[in-house]
Amino acid sequence: MTGELANLFITLDWITAIQVVILGFIGGVLSGFIGSGGAFFMTPGMMNLGVNGVVAVASNITHKFGKAMMGSKKHGEMGNVDKKLGLFLLLTSLIGIRLAVWINSLLFHGGGDGHGAASGAGANLYISAVFIGILTLVALSMLRDLMKNTEEGTGPSKKISEFLARIKIPPLISFKVADVKVSLWFLMPVGLATGYLAGTIGVGGFVGVPAMIYVFGVPTAVAAGTELYLAMFMGAWGALNYAWEGFVDIRMTILLLSGSLFGVYLGAYGVKVVGERYIRMVTCMIILLCVLSRAIAVPMYLRQLGFLDISPELDPWFNNGSKFLLFASGISGVVMILFNVFRAYQARKKIHLTLSYGRANP
Amino acid sequence: MAIVIISSTSAALRKEVAENLAGKLGYPCLGREELVDQATEAGIPVGKLEMSVIKSPAQSEGLARLKERYLAFITAKICEQAGEGNLVYHGRGGHLLLPNVSHVFRVRLVPNREYQIQSNMLKLRMDRPKAEKYEQQVNEDIERWVHIIHSQDMDDPKQYDLVLNLENMSIANTGAALCSMVELPDFRPNPASLAAMGNYCLAARARMTLALDERTAGADLTVSANEGVLTVTYMPRQSQVAQFIPEVLAGLAGVKEVLATMAETNILWIQETFNPQSETFTQINQIAQRWGAAIELLRFTPSDEMVIEEDEEGATAMSPPQKEKAPYTGGIEEDTPEAQVIDDGGLHQTLDELIRQGRSGGGHLLQGTFPSLSKTISRNVNYSLVVIGDLFLARSKAVQTRLLRDLKVFLGEHIRIPVISVDELQKKYFLGGKELIKFFVFALLVLGIYWGLFAHQETILSFLQKYKGWKIFAVVVVGLLAPVFAYLYGTIAHVVLKIVKLD
């Protein structure tokens, strides 16, 4: 890679390509298992491989576009997509994405200059900060719910929906498939936040799905299906915006898809064979480790921007430490999921499923 | 003779009418509030369930389990009180508890709104706007409750035998009107309705027994009953409970046999006649094996009198079935019914084969119309697929095809489960020649994309980014390549997983 290209994209050898496919596979398994995009793993993973933050986000959102298209088709067949709700959220989410692309581009071109630092350090720091902030919030809420809920628990916390259910600001819009009535004034900020986060770190689903469940009262399956439908348009819009800016590394997109489209099926199969509590526990653990992994890389970006006075020789240590933790979290999570998938697959073959107890009480 | 179930959003009104009617008929009267107290005493936290359902409908395993226990408790108690008939029950969605039991007379009372508001103003010492708001909120909460607990809309008039608007009717006259209707022969118990009710009651009692025993209390179980045969399905991750199921149910009266099937999900197969040697049986069994599913059989015999008429707009209308009238016997009945050879359309034979293969999800019979079929399909069972097989066999081929298509559309609109006909099974779930050709063609295209992209990395990346002046083309290429690749590669992945039976 030479000239401007070398500044923007990494040189791709076999080892790196395989690592990207593995990232895609792990992200896909997590995505199928958790029901979210999996970008929380893939984006930092690519950054650890030396990909610029903005290119990582751009390539990931482009990959998400293709994947969501396949996923929403499947959910649509199951009747889990509320297209009207998706389209209402889309209106403001497109603005959110455009805003995110604008900020990322600005920081990419402006950050890192004047300190002999790598170009894009500003964008990298910004993406990492948003990533750490949002995912910490998500993981801590999940952890709190997990600690509170007993076996007989009736699900996640409902404080927000209880509060918002009492506020009915017109115009109220009725959604037939989701079977809810929601004020346009609540739809707009949720769409905006989903779009902004999808455009900034590629994990809009972490806001969109819980918001639909907790704030609007949408059934979980419909929330996941509608998010994928929304993600298809958001992904397309994000991909086109980033492509316009020249940030999409199509090689990364193709490699991510090569791993994730297999992984997502296995993850979805995993959901059928493990309990809800276990799913939430694994998700929580992986997210917290991803946050920690990203936090380890932050001093490196701070140094590159001149905010921290440490030796540049420490950069590989920060980067490798972050990479190790990320892969360790992803691989251990995937091993836990695949172990259950494999066990269920084997059990399915061996066990005689119907046990007949003739005339138990004649 | 009949079970009268009165539903209304006004608890006071339904109680008053139910008590009036019960007094006139000499039937016992039972109310939801009474059963809720009993359920709470039995360890079912109905208050907690109510708060969860009304405040936020986010579903969870815990909520689903609680909901199922509550429904089983209420059904079991109604059955206990009713025996073979004679009960007036009043509640919110009680009319949905015993679907297709013809001696249940389902009544909806629409309260006088003005009266309700005035009552609220007096009782709760509210001003009019607050009382109106309160009334609206209570109605919405009850509608939500029925919707979440029964997965049905309580305002659908098709669920009731009678909807009465009480704006201009007194309680006494309402009671008198209901009293005369209950006496109609349509609501008299008959062997079929008693058998159907017996099945619901046994399943509910079994579910409650399993929920109250600590060995099986924490498991997610689906229970169905047919002629004393109980089918209990349990999740693979809870396989340790399997050994306790027969022990727990051993003391339950009326149980002839217990089938415990491990299943992640259920496939419902609706057909008029079943044959375990048929190709459809083999195909559905293979899908069930892949999914770890139990197969539930439903022998559906469309009513003889079911007439499909084309109305002026060309829409299909269906007239309700006319119940068969019993010949007049002067009240003299045979001591012992005549021994009859019942044609079950191969149901038992197919069930036996499913039990042998470890896939039985139970089986039952139904004669009726499209709506009665829809009512029979429980919204609380985790069905992944409904397969419509050979039906309307007495009709000509063209009519059969049309009716099957209509039924598929009807069920697709009324139940949120994928509905498929047997003709589509092969195409959708099995590998055919066409799919294999598609697989190889797509694989070649994917390899071509890989080669093109990785052998010419620099050229393509230069083209895609803005410095070369091809901005708009770059956007178009990215916008097309990503979804096209996802489609090609996604199809390949799906075929591969189909081959290893992990789709």
In summary, what is this structure?
By secondary structure, chain A is mostly helical.
What key phrases describe this protein's structure?
heterodimer, A: 362 residues, mainly alpha, globular, B: 503 residues, alpha/beta, Rossmann fold, Alpha-Beta Plaits, 4 domains, five-stranded parallel beta sheet, 17 helices, 15 strands, 50% helix
Protein described:
The complex is a heterodimer of chains A (362) and B (503). Chain A has 362 residues and is mostly helical. Chain A has one domain (14-350). Chain A contains 13 helices and 3 strands. In chain A, strands 1-2 form a two-stranded antiparallel sheet. In chain A, helix 2 (14-34) packs across helix 13, helix 3 (39-48) runs antiparallel to helix 4 (53-77) and helix 8 runs antiparallel to helix 9 (205-216). The longest helix of chain A is centred in the C-terminal third of the chain and has 36 residues, at 315-350. The radius of gyration of chain A is 21 Å and the shape is globular. Residues 112-117 and 151-156 of chain A have low confidence and may be disordered. Residues 307-339 of chain B have low confidence and may be disordered. Chain B folds into 4 domains: 3-191, Rossmann fold; 220-262, Alpha-Beta Plaits (2-Layer Sandwich); 263-316 and 344-430, 3-Layer(aba) Sandwich (Rossmann fold); 433-499. Chain B has helices at residues 11-25, 32-41, 46-55, 61-82, 113-124, 128-150, 171-182, 191-212, 244-249, 279-291, 347-357, 370-376, 397-414, 422-429, 433-455, 457-464, 471-499, and strands spanning 3-7, 29-31, 87-91, 104-110, 162-165, 221-226, 229-234, 257-262, 265-271, 293-302, 308-310, 316-318, 360-368, 383-388, 419-421. In chain B, helix 1 (11-25) packs across helix 7 (171-182) and helix 3 (46-55) crosses helix 4 (61-82). Chain B has a 5-stranded parallel β-sheet with strand order 2-3-1-4-5, sandwiched between helices. Chain B contains 17 helices and 15 strands. Chain B is of the alpha/beta class and 503 residues long. Chains A and B meet through helix 1, helix 4, helix 7, helix 10 and helix 11 of A and helix 3, helix 4, helix 9, strand 8 and helix 11 of B.
